[in-house]
């Protein structure tokens, strides 16, 4: 596909991202780099700025300050559709599906930024591939609103995968999922990453879920990166342990 030009190196680089909402400083100078084939897990307490960062990267919000580069192109002033066309794709913390449409039709909406010349057969192939990646083929023709929550979450992820993203930003994909569901989501995301080679930013409060996928962990607090690095190193930090894993873990 279009985004097959994934030579090595950094795909997405954000530098000095600041976002103010009236008096609230949601982001206070965040630097983050996402690399092809690698998963960066992003932790942070409620209100620490995780979704605001995804909103700034994806073009839902304009940062107050800072630069964002995608494969060497400056994108911080581009509309979100332009960013999507460049391969920057995200999901939302709250489901944003079209309830009256089928699973397959919802997944197909993820092709909104695709080449308009894409033929019907190629579209169907992409839909089937995305459905298969998320185990949704048996549900393809059901109205998405009739499915359990876990399958609706998977439909959102399939909609993001259908365009073969270069950078995938997932905001709490495992929220509300039971253990079996998030574990199978881990496996499906591993397969998708292997096939597509995208860079991924993965936000979730489920530490086991994020660490099952992440090559790097970054921790936000009050709109600043307080720690970033190898997962083992970050999880061994006593402040991170206190915030996320409880004092019992910090003491072990
Ligand atoms: N559109 C907005 N208008 C005003 N304030 C906002 C807006 N969006 C976010 N904020 C504020 O910015 C801060 C960061 O919020 P954000 O949603 O990015 O946090 P988060 O880390 O995603 O939290 P959670 O874990 O609860 O999803 C919070 O203080 C929030 O109230
Ligand atoms: Mg959030």
TrEMBL record:
Residue span(s) of domain ABC transporter:
12-247
Any one Pfam family here would be ABC_tran
Spell out the InterPro entries in the cross-references: AAA+_ATPase (IPR003593), ABC_AA/LPS_Transport (IPR051120), ABC_transporter-like_ATP-bd (IPR003439), P-loop_NTPase (IPR027417)
GO MF terms on file? ATP binding; ATP hydrolysis activity
Q: Name one GO cellular component term.
A: plasma membrane
Give UniProt keywords alphabetically.
Answer: ATP-binding, Nucleotide-binding, Transport
- For this entry, the protein name equals ABC transporter ATP-binding protein
């Amino acid at each position: 596909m279009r985004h097959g030009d994934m030579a090595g190196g950094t795909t997405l680089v954000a530098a000095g991202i600041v976002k103010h909402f009236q008096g609230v400083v949601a982001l206070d100078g965040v630097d983050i780099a996402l690399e092809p084939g690698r998963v960066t897990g992003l932790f942070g307490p409620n209100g620490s700025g995780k979704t605001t960062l995804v909103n700034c990267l994806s073009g839902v919000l304009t940062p107050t300050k800072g630069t964002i580069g995608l494969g060497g192109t400056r994108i911080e002033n581009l509309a979100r559709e332009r960013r999507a066309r460049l391969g920057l794709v995200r999901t939302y913390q709250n489901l944003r599906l079209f309830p009256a449409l089928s699973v397959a039709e919802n997944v197909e909406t993820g092709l909104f930024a695709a080449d308009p010349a894409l033929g019907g057969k190629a579209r169907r192939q992409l839909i089937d591939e995305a459905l298969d990646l998320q185990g949704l083929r048996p549900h393809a023709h059901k109205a998405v609103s009739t499915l359990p929550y876990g399958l609706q979450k998977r439909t959102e992820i399939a909609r993001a995968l259908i365009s073969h993203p270069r950078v995938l930003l997932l905001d709490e994909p495992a929220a509300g999922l039971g253990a079996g569901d998030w574990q199978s989501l881990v496996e499906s995301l591993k397969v998708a990453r292997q096939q597509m080679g995208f860079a991924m930013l993965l936000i979730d409060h489920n530490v086991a879920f994020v660490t099952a996928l992440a090559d790097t962990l970054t921790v936000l607090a009050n709109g600043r990166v307080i720690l970033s690095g190898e997962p083992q190193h970050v999880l061994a930090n006593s402040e991170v342990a206190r915030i996320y894993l409880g004092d019992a873990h910090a003491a072990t």
